[in-house]
Amino acid sequence: MEGLISASQHFLPKDSESRRKDEINHDEKLQSKEDTNDQALTDQHMMTREGLDRRNIWEPSVYYTLGKESFCFVGHEINIWESMDSYGALIWPGAIALSRFLENNQQQMNLMDKAVLELGAGTGLLSIVASLLGAWVTATDQPDILSNLSFNLRRNTKGRSRYIPQVAALSWGQELERDFPFPSYHYDYVLAADVVYHHNFLEELLNTMLHFCRPGSGTTLLWANKIRFQSDLKFTECFKSNFNTTLLAEVPQENVWIYKATAKE
What we know:
Helix 2 runs parallel beside helix 3 and helix 3 packs parallel to helix 4 (about 145-155). The termini are far apart. About 40% of the residues lie in helices and about 25% in strands. The protein is globular, with a radius of gyration of 24 Å. The chain has helices spanning about 1-55, 95-105, 125-130, 145-155, 175-180, 200-210, 230-240; strands spanning about 60-65, 70-75, 75-80, 115-120, 135-140, 165-170, 190-195, 220-225, 245-250, 255-265. By secondary structure, it is an alpha/beta fold. The strands form two sheets. Strands 6-5-4-7-8-10-9 form a seven-stranded mixed sheet, sandwiched between helices. Strands 1-2-3 form a three-stranded antiparallel sheet.
């Protein structure tokens, strides 16, 4: 028996070492996953806190009431209903910055009678401003966002806009050729505001931008975003490598950048 015990002990170190390596690798993977999850939660908390904090600041063009934000753009008061249920139900700095840019640069970016698509329209502020500037607008977002989006668009453009804005469901990267085939669905401008933050669909977002702003389309993409996370900067680099880009404006106090992009031929 002693010999058998000794023989089995001879093989234990190798098995034990292998098991230890497996355990270490497993622990490292778990730790990496936990770190990623912790970072995601931290980023989500930051976004939620930013949404709440926006109710505690005041600007000359914005005043706040419970559940509603009111703006003045293009000579009209715009009332936007929002909620804390999702990021898409809140107004973010990029939408305000790009709305203000379009209002103040109408000769440079003339939207009159232009076909305009907004990606991730959320509460609809940017689409409303584009409509009031004379564009034929299609505002898109996830299906669960569309009810509030439609309400805000109707409330703020009825009797004011040249065209009745349309609303459509669009999930980034999904069924684009089926639901928005080119050239049947062609737009002069694609707008996107604060669509880049800590989420898992950045590649799909970029592919969606490329679908609508492709070589030969003549489409101009206007993207405004607050830079919050390292992933935002990585996306910006990918964005620049895939499009011909121009930095149109910066809003330092909000850390918002506004880009114009066209397809690389």
